[in-house]
Amino acid sequence: MNALPTTRLGGTDLDISRIGFGAWALGGAGWSFAWGAQDDADSIATVHRAVAAGVNWIDTAPAYGLGHSEEVVGKALAALPESERPYVFTKAGLVWDHPVDPGRAPRKLLRPASIRTEVEDSLRRLGVERIDLYQAHWPGDGALLTFGPDEDPATTARHATALEEYWAVLAELKAEGKVRAIALSNHDTAQLAAAEAVAHVDAIQPQFSLLHREAAPELAWAHAHGAGAIVYQPLHSGLLTGAFSAERVAALPDDDWRKGSPEFTTGLAANLALVDALRPIAAAHGTTVSAVALAWTLAWPGVTGAIVGARRPGQVAGWIGAGSLELTDADRDAIAAAAAVTGAGDGPTRP
């Protein structure tokens, strides 16, 4: 196994590589927010390639493929010697109607009884005795997971669970030894503060990238409260790899959720212009656009690690170098200026 720089995840006893493997796409097709068809053998080989390159944690969730991603991760773990197995991070709180309607978006539910069922299901699918980091996937407000207009608020209110209630259950699971550490994903600073009053927040997981910078306050909160922070979609679902064009977006399969995302349609031109500004920086460092975009997220105070996905083993080489890439002040100035000129993304452009 190769070495990647590692750092402690908040106040836990987990020393994690600066880059972790994201298993969203490994869920395959047939569910809302799928990335299209995915070969399981490719998935397992890709996990093994990332581990061989020094990645020591995998982030997955039951909702990814309606349990399938966790099953694939479990098979990948089982094929590795125990001493080489990475940490496994997964989540609770997205509940789907499968097999009634697998194409319907999952609902954000965090009912105590459901959480206890979900953790047992995840342990079984992953084939492990303990989950290293267990996360509330979204606030338990009962809403459908959607990037568009939601349903009637009265409908979601009937399904909502108080944050203090579901966070207490995660703390109980930690005390019982079923999980090693607990975290909140997609929760704002007020929600993080409310949870901290119940039990310490070991880590957070916000979306954060050069094209999605709105979580800067949550990262600052984590830094101030001794919580780790792992960010997801740091390559913005592939847009920040340097491999996309309008033609490639048009050629995406119809069952790839990105095909209908504004970031890949109405906002595509501005996003690609910002990506182009990263190319000379990558060339100067002898690295890839992906590595520069990742290094930008890792440079933010409080960011412990970044989750990066891959669907084939060869894709790992494009971003693994970001774990040790240090951007200069001039690089950061150039990136901030490009963000301002292109108008791509929202939020602060420098820490």
Automatic annotation (TrEMBL):
SUPFAM superfamilies registered for this protein in UniProt: NAD(P)-linked oxidoreductase (SSF51430)
Keywords: Oxidoreductase
Cellular compartments per GO CC: cytosol
Source species: Kitasatospora phosalacinea
Name of the protein described by the UniProt record: Aldo/keto reductase
Domain NADP-dependent oxidoreductase: 18-338
Signal peptide: none
Keyword Oxidoreductase: yes
Molecular function terms from GO: oxidoreductase activity
Entry-linked Gene3D superfamilies: NADP-dependent oxidoreductase domain (3.20.20.100)
Source organism phylogeny: Bacteria, Bacillati, Actinomycetota, Actinomycetes, Kitasatosporales
Record keyword DNA damage present: no
